[in-house]
Specification:
There is one protein chain. The protein has 612 residues and is of the alpha/beta class. The chain is built from 17 helices and 9 strands. Among the domains are: 223 residues, 3-Layer(aba) Sandwich (Rossmann fold), CATH 3.40.50.300; 193 residues. It has a 9-stranded mixed sheet, sandwiched between helices. Helix 2 runs antiparallel to helix 10 and helix 12 packs antiparallel against helix 15. The radius of gyration is 34 Å and the shape is elongated.
């Protein structure tokens, strides 16, 4: 069976024979991507559902902190390593002109100190401003590039954790949504899951703690019904981390099967790792097919000229025409450059409008919510809700940006008929982490509170007029200034004055809250719009440089073919007899290499006659 490593090795040999360093660089890039197949699986869910315990059971190590209170405040990434190690990862200031590629600062720590940096107890609400903690362990499950990411809980207690998790989901290759067997899915869980699936479609639901709840089978069926009614196509796998850990300690295969982890591991290896490796193999096969086509373009005309010297003028003319077209592809005014430039302009315009529309909709929803309640009492909830909705809106916009760029790259590729199988990778603009670092927070709301003494004075100020007015009126009837009627009127007017003042203070709080929300929305649009444009310009340069290289490779192949074909006119009989078998063999090897690429998921090889 053909492997990717063997295919790349065969392609390297062919490129070396052709003396093509440009194609060797392409293969080196393909080999580097294949050898670093990081597959990130995010473990998400509400607080205290067993996410950290699940990760610990998968890697059979007490790495992530567990407890009865809110434990995880920072994401923990676990990947394969020769020896156990860990490091803290912070965000460092970006270099000028490189806003789209944030730098990272890494600080090594002993692996047994991971819990001190990711737990809510030692690092409440991530006051140390960590991006994540990266741990490495020698585990067979992680050996194929699988990386598990234990995330902070989402929902109930602090919606900012949901925002942080949502911002990272575009980076995920797969998702495990965790809930325990105590109850069916809540509306908040289903809402979060629906939003998360739009950002990371490859997902599975995991129901934990089946050993604690006798009714877990009934809950599983209910939850499967919830998923089906919500249109969320994903498997649901019930597991018990406790049984898994006992099975690992006692080496009990039956108990391990009962824990449900066998099904979960199969899902990770087949549906997650297997699928990712298949996509990686396809990308490598596409690169090899591009190399095959370039080498065919270089060798096929030479062989045709040797076999039929009379056709040399026709071959030369065809090569000259193809070379002129390749030269045109290299020019800045070529059609693909215009397609790229116009496409980026359209994407920038569409995404800028989409960003504004989404954030203004969030602002309108926030203002409507403020009008329905008292922001003075609900300000913390309003702040957390607004952060979550803003982050979700940004995630959706940036995921759309990545999809739009993939579509544009495909449009550009259509101009390269000779390299139609070329694959562009590495255009990642969907990550929304750090986007709001420069955005001013919502701030504190002036609640316009008054002390009990001030409340009394406000009431007395209103009652004074009522007592005086009704006291004078009743004085004509011979009554004293202070009488039951004037005192009752004073109490009524004083109460009314206090209620009016309370209503005015509520209106002032609502007005100030709306102003703070508008300022936050405007500041977010201002900062994120700049970042969005920076990333799109960076993506434009990546696409431009990639296809400029493709055009240069094609031009080089045709130029070499032209030079060699012309040289055949003066070639001796001995040279012809030596060269023809060699070229025939190389083209046969190219056909074999193309079949290997097709077997690994690449495009079907084109017939040699067509490529000629």
């Amino acid at each position: 069976m053909v492997t990717v490593e063997k295919m790349l090795e065969h392609a390297d040999v062919m490129v070396a024979r052709a003396e093509r360093p440009d194609l060797a660089q392409r293969l080196a890039n393909a080999s580097r991507r294949w050898q670093d197949p990081s597959i990130r699986v995010f473990v998400v869910g509400e607080f205290k559902q067993g996410k950290s315990t699940l990760v610990n059971a998968l890697i059979n190590a007490p790495l992530c902190p567990v407890g009865t209170d809110v434990t995880t405040s920072v994401a923990t990434m676990v990947s394969a390593g020769d020896e156990p190690s860990a490091e803290l990862v912070y965000s460092a200031p970006s270099l000028p002109g490189h806003e789209e590629a944030p730098r990272l600062r890494r600080v090594p720590i002993p692996i047994d100190e991971v819990a001190q940096h990711v737990s809510q107890r030692h690092n409440p609400d991530n006051t140390s401003h960590l991006l994540y903690v990266h741990a490495r362990l020698p585990r067979p499950l992680l050996a194929d590039g699988l990386t598990l990411v234990d995330t902070p809980g989402v929902g109930g207690l602090n919606s900012s954790h949901a925002a942080a998790t949502m911002s990272a989901l575009p980076q995920a290759d797969a998702l495990l949504f965790v809930s325990d067997g105590s109850a069916e899915y809540s509306d908040a869980e289903l809402e979060f899951l629906a939003a998360a699936l739009r950002l990371c479609p490859n997902a599975a639901a995991v129901m934990t703690k089946t050993d604690l709840y006798p009714e877990w089978r009934r809950i599983v069926e209910i939850n499967r019904g919830h998923l089906a009614r919500a249109g969320l196509a994903m498997p649901l796998i019930p597991v018990s981390a406790r049984l898994r850990l006992i099975a690992a300690r006692t080496n009990d295969a039956t108990l391990n099967e009962e824990s449900g982890f066998s099904a979960l591991v199969r899902h990770l290896r087949l549906d997650v790792v297997g699928n990712a490796r298949a996509l990686g193999a396809t990308a490598a096969a596409n690169d090899v097919m591009g190399v095959v086509e370039n080498l065919r373009a270089q060798w096929q005309p030479e062989l045709a000229a040797y076999n039929d010297p009379q056709s040399l003028p026709r071959i030369t003319a065809e090569l000259d025409t193809a070379k002129a077209r390749a030269q045109e592809l290299k020019e800045r005014s070529s059609r693909w450059q215009i397609t790229l430039s116009d496409g980026i302009a359209d994407i920038v315009s569409d995404l800028e409008h989409d960003l504004r529309e989404r954030l203004r909709a969030v602002g309108r929803e926030a203002e409507a919510s403020i009008d329905m309640g008292d922001p003075g009492q609900d300000w913390e909830q309003v702040t957390a809700w607004l952060d979550e909705r803003i982050q979700l809106a940004l995630s959706e916009t940036f995921v759309w940006a990545e999809d739009s760029l993939a579509w544009l790259a495909d449009q550009v590729a259509q101009h390269f008929e000779a390299s139609a199988h070329d694959t562009l990778v590495g255009i990642d603009v969907g990550n929304t982490g750090g986007l709001l670092d420069r955005v001013t927070g919502l701030g504190d709301l002036d609640r316009h509170e008054v002390s009990p003494l001030q409340k009394v004075l406000i009431g007395m100020r209103g009652s004074y007029g009522g007592v005086l007015m009704f006291g004078l009126l009743t004085g004509f009837a011979g009554m004293a200034l202070l009488n039951p009627i004037s005192l009752g009127a004073g109490i009524l007017l004083g109460g009314r004055t206090y209620l009016d003042d309370k209503e005015n203070r509520l209106r002032a709080r609502r007005a100030e809250a709306k102003n703070l929300v508008r300022r936050r929305i405007d500041d977010t649009i201002f900062q994120v719009n700049k970042n969005l444009k920076d990333r799109l310009r960076w993506a434009q340069r990546q696409i431009r440089d990639h296809y400029t290289t493709v055009a240069s490779e094609l031009h080089t192949s045709l130029a070499e073919s032209m030079k060699v074909a012309v040289a055949t006119a003066t070639a001796s009989k001995v040279e012809r007899e030596r060269r023809v078998p060699w070229l025939t063999k190389q083209l046969s090897l190219l056909d074999q290499l193309a079949r290997e690429a097709a077997e690994l998921g690449g495009p079907l090889p084109r017939p040699a006659e067509a490529s000629a």
